[in-house]
Structures are given as C-alpha cells and as structure tokens.
Amino acid sequence: MTKPLLQVHELSKSYGGIKACDRISFDLYPGQVLGIVGESGSGKSTLLGAIADHIAVDHGNVTYLSRSGEDLEIFQLAEAKRRLLMRTEWGFVQQNPRDGLRIRVSAGANIGERLLDIGVRHYGNIRDEAAHWLREVEIDPTRIDDLPAQFSGGMQQRLQLARVLVTRPRLILMDEPTGGLDVSVQARLLDLLRSLVRNFHLSVIIVTHDIGVVRLLAHRLLVMQQGQVVESGLTDQVLDDPQHPYTQLLVSAALTP
Ligand SMILES: Nc1ncnc2c1ncn2[C@@H]1O[C@H](COP(=O)(O)OP(=O)(O)OP(=O)(O)O)[C@@H](O)[C@H]1O
C-alpha cells in the first residue's frame, strides 16, 4: 500500500490564551492536493507555518517520507539537513510574491539562485534551466533579465512558482497563492497550478479562504474553525454535503453573490 508522503500528528500552537492550532492531525499522500479552508483567524497560516517549521510548535510532530525512502521527523532534523530538504524536496509559495522573490534581481537570477543554493555551478545550464522554467509557468523567456517589479501580480506569482519548481520539489506548501489577484488572473493561475500538479505529480497543501480555489484544485479538504479541524474529507463530498454547521456557513456564503 502507498505510504503517506507527510504525516502530521497532533500539532498544537498557542499564542497566549489563543489556541491557533489545536491537535491537528492528517496524512497527505503522493500526488494529492489538500486544501485547508476557514475564515480569517481560524489557524490556517499557523498550521502551514508549523508544518514548514517556520513557527515553533508547542506539541506534535511531522513525518516526511523522503525521496530516498527515509521517514524524517521534521522537527528533529539537524539544521543543515532541514535547510537542504526545504530547498530541494519542499517548496513554499507565499501569498505575497514579494515575500517569496528577491525583488532586486532578475527573473532568471531568482530561479537560478535556487540551483546555486544546491550546488549547481554551470552558469550556462542555470540560464537554460531558468528559461525552461519561465516557459513552464507561461512567462515569455525573453523576459529572463527583467526584474520582478516589471511583472504584473499574476506573473510575479508564476515567477515564484518557477523559483520553487526548479529544484523539482515533491511537496509544495501554498499560503493563499491567488489572494489579491483579479478574478481572470486568478483563473489563469489556477489552471496553471492544476496542470503543474498533474504534470509533475506534486503533493500540495494549499491554504485559502476561497472555496472556489479548493473546489478546482484540492482532492481533499480540512475545514478549520478556531484552531480545530471541524470537518475533513473528499472535496466534492465536503462541499456538496457539508455536515458541520460552520462548513455549511462557509459553503452558503461562497454561493451568495
Ligand atoms: N504571531 C502571532 N502572535 C499572536 N497571535 C497570533 C500570531 N499569529 C497568529 N496569531 C493568532 O492565531 C490565530 C490564528 O491565526 P492564523 O493567522 O493562523 O489564521 P488564518 O486562518 O491563517 O487567518 P488569515 O486567513 O487571516 O491569515 C488568530 O487568532 C491570530 O490572531
């Protein structure tokens, strides 16, 4: 039987008296897209940050099945190994591309930098790879020397994806990747994400408050309210027949024009 790529076990994180994440557990399988939905303040970003070890948890653990078949306890890894893993097998896509890009260097350098980080040194190859990944994310490779600031918001987000994908990660964590974009730009980005997930057999955890985004992308859903998972399951099942009153509210709010 296929083993989970990621096992999240009883993750908890409080800020003072606020339980931002309260004993969250789930498994993510290879090639699966898991959507995490909930209102602002429900704990989605804290959960994502905790999984990526950006936020120190109070309790719980995360186990990742590496490319070489090792079960790695993320919070127990030595710093160097954790950093290498985050640069190679994992990727993080920020809501604001400015947080995920280096704004003062060219598009090509943004992509190439990730390869330099993992020890690639042949500059010709790096430039070719950067051009290749620009094409993959539907950016004209003749823009390779442009700065991110010369790109539209949607293009910046696609550039961020190229920067993440160049090291061929297996797991991508995304925090509201379509937030703040116009509806038509969002739709194009979602289409692109869908084909990238399929073509590269990516496993993805995507945090959003937008039910439309998870309906299009996610195989499974976790619904969070006040730091807890109140409902989970296959996306269509959860959205077409929500059981928990909070999920019912989210779904009906999304239907109201
Ligand atoms: N650094 C922090 N210090 C104190 N409280 C925090 C901190 N980060 C988050 N919180 C609190 O934890 C709870 C969960 O916040 P979190 O940002 O994870 O929610 P969210 O669902 O991602 O919200 P949003 O969609 O607005 O980003 C909230 O009550 C928030 O105020």
Name the descriptors:
257 residues, alpha/beta, 6-stranded mixed beta sheet, 4-stranded antiparallel beta sheet, binds adenosine-5'-triphosphate
Structural class: alpha/beta
- Following the backbone from N to C, one meets helices and strands in this order, namely EEEHEEHEHHHHEHEHEEHH
Uncertain runs with pLDDT below 50, 5 residues or more? none
What's the quaternary structure here? single chain
Estimate what percentage of residues fall within beta strands.
Answer: 15-25%
Discrete helix count:
10
> Which of globular, elongated, flat, extended, rod-shaped describes the shape?
globular
Question: Rg to the nearest angstrom?
Answer: 18 Å
Small-molecule binders: adenosine-5'-triphosphate
Percentage of residues assigned to helices? 25-40%
The average pLDDT is 93
Please count the beta strands (DSSP E, at least 2 residues each): 10
Spatial ordering of strands, largest sheet: 6-7-8-3-9-10
Distance between the termini: 44 Å
Largest pleated sheet: 6 strands, mixed
Q: Concise description?
A:
The chain is an alpha/beta fold.
Describe what you observe in this structure.
It is a single chain. With 257 residues, the chain is an alpha/beta fold. It has a domain at 102-168. The chain contains 10 helices and 10 strands. The protein has helices at residues 44-51, 79-88, 97-100, 107-117, 123-136, 153-165, 183-199, 211-217, 235-240, 245-255, and strands spanning 6-15, 18-28, 33-37, 59-65, 71-73, 90-93, 171-175, 203-208, 220-225, 228-234. The strands form 2 sheets. It has a 6-stranded mixed sheet with strand order 6-7-8-3-9-10, sandwiched between helices. A 4-stranded antiparallel sheet has the order 2-1-4-5, with helices on one face. Strand 9 (220-225) and strand 10 form a beta hairpin. The model has no long low-confidence stretch (mean pLDDT 93). Bound molecules: adenosine-5'-triphosphate. Residues 15, 18, 20, 38, 40-46, 209 line the site of adenosine-5'-triphosphate. This is Phosphonate C-P lyase system protein PhnK. Residues 6-251 form the ABC transporter domain.
